[in-house]
Amino acid sequence: MFGSIAARYDLANHLLSCGIDFYWRRCAADIVAGWQSKKIVDLATGTGDLALALQEKLPDAEIVGVDFLPEMLELAKRKGMRQTVVADAMKLPFAAASFDCATIAFGLRNMEDWGGALREMARVLSANGHLLVLEFSLPTMPILRAIYRFYLHRCVPFLGSFLTGKKSAYDYLGDSIEEFPSGNRMSLLMAANGFARATVQPLTGGIVTVYTASVAAACDRRTN
Length: 224
Hints:
- By secondary structure, the protein is α/β, with parallel strands linked by helices.
- The protein has one domain (3-223): Vaccinia Virus protein VP39 (Rossmann fold).
- It has helices spanning 9-16, 20-35, 49-57, 70-79, 114-124, 142-164, 167-179, 184-191, 216-223; strands at 39-43, 62-67, 83-86, 99-105, 125-136, 195-203, 208-215.
- The protein has a seven-stranded mixed β-sheet with strand order 3-2-1-4-5-7-6, sandwiched between helices.
- A hairpin with a 4-residue loop joins β6 and β7.
- α2 packs across α3.
- It starts with 8 loop residues before the first helix and ends with a helix.
- 39% of the residues are buried.
């Protein structure tokens, strides 16, 4: 499904979000820059928008973009991504503790097993490793939630179909956002799968949320 819309993926993302997706990724990149990470893996990197934002903020860091779609990674490389790896985020081809930071933007909800994906991220992170998840969520304010749901389920499939010719991809988008855990439920999911000290930062009224956490083993050692 994603491979079939790769050519117009960026255009659709920018138009359907009214360009606010640039701001969301900047916020995420600012957080990661504060950690001063040296080795970063960006999972489900797609066409590399978050990884490129990280490259701009941390020009000396080693940033590896991972995706299982070569079509997406080819576009990412054309845009300036330095390192890319074709791989399944559920079975990463990296040794344990290979990175000190893992990021994933709008990709975790597409994994076949959210907990399994988080455990795999924890595996490849070092003892002081950080995780950042940028993901769609539902606004908590009732009026905004109602307006957003109308846009998500009625407008986005029509506009997405016009832009990419694949209405099913954008029907799936709305359904996957509804099903994905957000807020405290996401914090609990992270805590159950290798992470601790989760933070939850809603953006744009809760349309998206930035989640951060640290590898649980490192937190436990500091506590004991």
